[in-house]
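stage 2 :: seqdesign
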């Protein structure tokens, strides 16, 4: 499973994701899934809208699959300076300066690389995974075996 994402609307444009799980989430978002649904397919439950971002990623370090939190909604980085906002691509710099923006975070940050790879393989194969992951923005941890 690759951690590279090809943009379907830009021939030959490829972005780097932090992990294969994040790359799969971006692909799901390109296919119409919401940010939460895209990660839910990999067994990762995103924090509720408006929850504080205590381990933010600087805008200069955002990669494909990172999530931007607002007080009332979530957006996903597509990489290469682009963000998916309500199904529309926008420049990254415009999103981070909008009112109500709380910060960027990596939903897969607390997962070990072996778990990230296993989850990505299971999602790609369409099989049920044995993990329930809660992507905590306000506290570390969040991986439970089902």
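stage 2 :: out
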């Amino acid at each position: 499973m690759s951690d590279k994402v090809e943009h379907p609307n830009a021939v030959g444009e490829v972005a780097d994701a932090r992990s294969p799980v994040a790359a799969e989430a971006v692909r799901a978002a390109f296919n119409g899934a919401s940010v939460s649904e895209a990660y839910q397919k990999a067994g990762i439950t995103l924090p509720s809208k408006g929850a504080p971002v205590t381990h933010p990623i600087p805008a200069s370090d955002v990669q494909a699959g990172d999530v931007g939190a607002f007080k009332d909604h979530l957006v996903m980085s597509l990489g290469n300076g682009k963000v998916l906002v309500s199904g529309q691509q926008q420049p990254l710099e415009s999103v981070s300066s909008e009112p109500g923006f709380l910060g960027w975070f990596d939903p897969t940050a607390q997962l070990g690389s072996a778990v990230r790879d296993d989850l990505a393989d299971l999602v790609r194969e369409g099989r049920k995974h044995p993990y329930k992951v809660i992507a905590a923005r306000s506290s570390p941890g969040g991986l439970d075996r089902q």
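stage 3 :: structure notes
- The two ends are 23 Å apart (CA to CA).
- The helical segments are 20-30, 35-40, 92-96, 113-125.
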